[in-house]
């Protein structure tokens, strides 16, 4: 049987400063653990020149390790994953942020957990065990906690952190969930877990520390929050 291969989907929008660090850490942790991998960078026409940095990283680390699948304009986080999976050659997919809030040191823990329990999905949690959030102001903490509380009550997902987005999926599971999911943008992450529960996929959690970005800005704005509330109500009604 062929060894597992892990495709890391890395969506980027204005991540020029962060990209070299996150790629270096991904390469380091995969090299140390010996798992086979590729990183697929999905840049949405970032005006800060992220794609040029990605091209330079591809030159350094090689085209087999750094795959570029850019799009011309900003089309949202959810569709970036949809686009990325089309090009993934691994049998497992890892999705994570490129802004250093998700540390690649957790990836080997996700993989170990998946292998131990033969899970379909392993999801990072900030809200149990050693998990935590560092660097957010009170407003952002309240938004995240509030969103989690509401989704826990309405959707009863069986995972402690529904709005996080550091996850490992079996590729065919992710593909089926993507096909079933309607939401775009931030609520996409939440719908993925809600649909996974509907389909009876097994899900494990790994505590992670989420550290607020130092460079660049979050793309979470008023419209995303409105879309999120609409999305929760839609999932409450349909799952
Ligand atoms: N390609 C592409 N990438 C995008 C887009 N919007 C954001 N990204 C990339 O997606 C990642 C997360 O975006 P942020 O805007 O930094 O997210 P955040 O506000 O910190 O939110 C994070 O935490 C939330 C939970 O608290 C998560 O729900 C969310 O998915 C994300 O992980 C980053 O790598 C960013 O460059 C887009 O339209 N297109």
Q: What small molecules accompany the polymer chains?
A: guanosine-5'-diphosphate-alpha-D-mannose
Round the mean pLDDT to the nearest integer and report it: 91
Number of strands: 9
What gross morphology would you assign? Answer: globular
Keywords: Endoplasmic reticulum, Glycosyltransferase, Magnesium, Manganese, Metal-binding, Transferase
Cofactor: Mn(2+); Mg(2+); Ca(2+)
Subunit structure: Component of the dolichol-phosphate mannose (DPM) synthase complex.
Enzyme class: transferase
Structure description:
This protein is an alpha/beta fold and 239 residues long. Helix content is 44%, strand content 18%. The protein has eight helices and nine strands. It has helices at 19-33, 50-61, 77-86, 107-117, 138-155, 171-180, 187-198, 222-238, and strands at 5-12, 36-43, 66-68, 92-95, 121-125, 132-134, 167-170, 203-207, 209-211. It has a seven-stranded mixed β-sheet with strand order 3-2-1-4-7-5-8. A two-stranded parallel ribbon has the order 6-9. Helix 1 (19-33) links the parallel strand 1 and strand 2. Helix 1 runs parallel beside helix 2 (50-61), helix 5 (138-155) packs parallel to helix 8 and helix 7 packs parallel to helix 8. The protein is globular and about 45 Å long. The model has no long low-confidence stretch (mean pLDDT 91). Guanosine-5'-diphosphate-alpha-D-mannose binds next to strand 1, strand 2 and helix 3. Transfers mannose from GDP-mannose to dolichol monophosphate to form dolichol phosphate mannose (Dol-P-Man) which is the mannosyl donor in pathways leading to N-glycosylation, glycosyl phosphatidylinositol membrane anchoring, and O-mannosylation of proteins. Its EC number is 2.4.1.83.
């Amino acid at each position: 049987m062929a060894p597992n291969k892990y495709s890391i989907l890395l969506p980027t929008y204005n991540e020029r400063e962060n990209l070299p660090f996150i790629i270096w850490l991904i390469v380091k942790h995969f090299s140390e653990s010996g798992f086979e991998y590729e990183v697929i960078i999905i840049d949405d026409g970032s005006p800060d020149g992220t794609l040029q940095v990605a091209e330079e990283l591809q030159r350094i680390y090689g085209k087999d390790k750094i795959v570029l699948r850019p799009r011309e304009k900003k089309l949202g986080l959810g569709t970036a994953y949809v686009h990325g999976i089309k090009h993934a050659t691994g049998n497992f997919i890892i999705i994570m942020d490129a802004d250093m809030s998700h540390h690649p040191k957790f990836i080997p823990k996700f993989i170990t957990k998946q292998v131990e329990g033969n899970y379909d999905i392993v999801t990072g949690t900030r809200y149990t065990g050693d998990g935590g959030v560092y660097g957010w102001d009170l407003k952002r903490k309240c938004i995240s906690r509030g969103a989690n509380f509401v989704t826990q009550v309405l959707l009863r997902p069986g995972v402690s952190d529904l709005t996080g987005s550091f996850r490992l999926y079996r590729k065919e599971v992710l593909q089926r969930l993507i096909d079933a999911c309607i939401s775009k943008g931030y609520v996409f992450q939440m719908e993925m877990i809600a649909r996974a529960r509907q389909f009876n996929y097994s899900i494990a959690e790994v505590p992670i520390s989420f550290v607020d970005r130092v460079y660049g800005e979050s793309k979470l704005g008023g419209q995303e929050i409105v879309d999120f509330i609409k999305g929760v109500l839609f999932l409450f009604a349909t799952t």
